[in-house]
């Protein structure tokens, strides 16, 4: 017998990739159910060449569902994920809503699959910018320890959903085809839908992803800080992030500076990263080989290069990390969690409901 798998947010930038990842998955799947809001209910999507009608998400949607992949925003997960667990499903949640809940494992399978063993029905998938940094840094942490991380991101617009992709394409056309000055382009969504002002992304770089918190960092930046500590199970790692949106459609790039606990020889760092599952070393500057966003699109891997010693700090190392935010940053990491749950015999109903039904 195979599983019934539900995708909540199936019509979105991540949800559509989840369908592709399920098509290519090793999971035994009998049936796929696709869910959305009323806007897309009734629309027909394809799974393995079969037409599947998109259903409206309700409290009763999860009867008979074994695995529910959520990617429809935090409020949708907050409302419906507990009903999915109550109905006997295991939820893999791609939103930020449950990530810091102590009853919820936050998992990058290559890094902390062991955290799945204690799940209570909901597993959180980390933020896209955090996931790729974890894949690059875990092999370094394992061998030499990590004292601090300073990261600057160059993030693709698809990280803000399908509407941000549409907005970017429209703005670029207005500038290139109609001769509009980028300053005069009208923006409705970026830097983020939840803030008061919106700015053009065409020919621009916006140092704001998500809204600001009380300490002048954005939520996206604080996600990188808090999620790193939770995934690596070490609150002593110092993490500061500056998250920047750039006019790239898919694949996030990151300039990562780390200080290790022990001195780490650069050639050994490269070898450790090259040997780590999910990481691909692209580092040959003599031949101009380094990770690039355009090459990462469509791949499940995380590409790491430009690995070099800091000029002054003995334990300081710089690197450049690139991955497809919609795949390893979201859809693939979620389906990979589901595959790992299956391999470990952890796809099963939860005895005690630890999450509030709203
Ligand atoms: N994009 C990324 O790189 C990325 C990475 C990691 C995590 N995430 C997280 O994943 C989630 C989805 O992101 P996205 O980029 O795919 O967004 P998106 O393109 O805007 O898609 C949103 C999806 O959610 C559905 N939805 C909206 N309101 C709903 C409701 N009330 N009930 C049921 N479904 C509803 C939409 O359905 P309709 O078609 O009916 O509107 C659509 O399928 C967000 O929480 C985001 O933070 C995104």
Automatic annotation (TrEMBL):
Catalyzes the NADPH-dependent formation of L-aspartate-semialdehyde (L-ASA) by the reductive dephosphorylation of L-aspartyl-4-phosphate. Keywords: Amino-acid biosynthesis, Diaminopimelate biosynthesis, Lysine biosynthesis, Methionine biosynthesis, NADP, Oxidoreductase, Threonine biosynthesis. It comes from Streptococcus saliviloxodontae. Its EC number is 1.2.1.11. This is Aspartate-semialdehyde dehydrogenase. The gene is asd. NADP(+) binds at residues 11-14, 39-40, 158-159, 325. SMART domains: Semialdhyde_dh (SM00859). Phosphate binds at residue 99.
């Amino acid at each position: 017998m195979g599983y019934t798998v539900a995708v909540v947010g199936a019509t979105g930038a991540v949800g559509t990739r989840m369908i592709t990842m399920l098509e290519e998955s090793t999971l035994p799947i009998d049936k796929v159910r696709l869910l959305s809001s009323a806007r897309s209910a009734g629309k027909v999507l394809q799974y393995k060449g079969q037409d599947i009608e998109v259903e409206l998400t309700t409290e009763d949607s999860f009867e008979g569902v074994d695995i529910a992949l959520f990617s429809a925003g935090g409020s949708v997960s907050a409302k419906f994920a507990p009903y999915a667990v109550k109905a006997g499903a295991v939820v893999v949640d791609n939103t930020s809503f449950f990530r810091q809940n102590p009853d919820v494992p936050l998992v990058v399978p290559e890094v902390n699959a062991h955290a799945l063993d204690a799940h209570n029905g909901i597993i959180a998938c980390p933020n896209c910018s955090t996931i790729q940094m974890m894949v690059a840094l875990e092999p370094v942490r394992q061998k030499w320890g990590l004292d601090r991380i300073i990261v600057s991101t160059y993030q693709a617009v698809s990280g803000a959903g399908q509407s941000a992709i549409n907005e970017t394409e429209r703005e670029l056309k207005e500038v290139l085809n109609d001769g509009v000055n980028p300053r005069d382009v009208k923006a409705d969504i970026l830097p983020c839908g939840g803030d008061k002002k919106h700015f053009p992304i065409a020919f621009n770089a916006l140092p704001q992803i998500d809204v600001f918190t009380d300490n002048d960092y954005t939520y996206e930046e604080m996600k990188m800080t808090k999620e790193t500590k939770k995934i690596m199970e070490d609150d002593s790692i110092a993490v500061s992030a500056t998250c920047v949106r750039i006019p790239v459609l898919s694949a996030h790039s990151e300039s990562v500076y780390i200080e290790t606990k022990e001195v780490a020889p650069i050639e050994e760092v490269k070898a450790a990263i090259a040997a780590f599952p999910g990481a691909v070393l692209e580092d040959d500057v003599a031949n101009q080989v380094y990770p690039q966003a355009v090459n990462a699109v469509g791949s499940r891997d995380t590409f790491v290069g430009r690995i070099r010693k800091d000029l002054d700090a003995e334990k300081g190392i710089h690197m450049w990390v690139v991955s497809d935010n919609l795949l390893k940053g979201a859809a693939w990491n979620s389906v990979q969690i589901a595959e790992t749950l299956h391999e470990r015999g952890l796809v099963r109903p939860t005895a005690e409901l630890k999450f509030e039904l709203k």
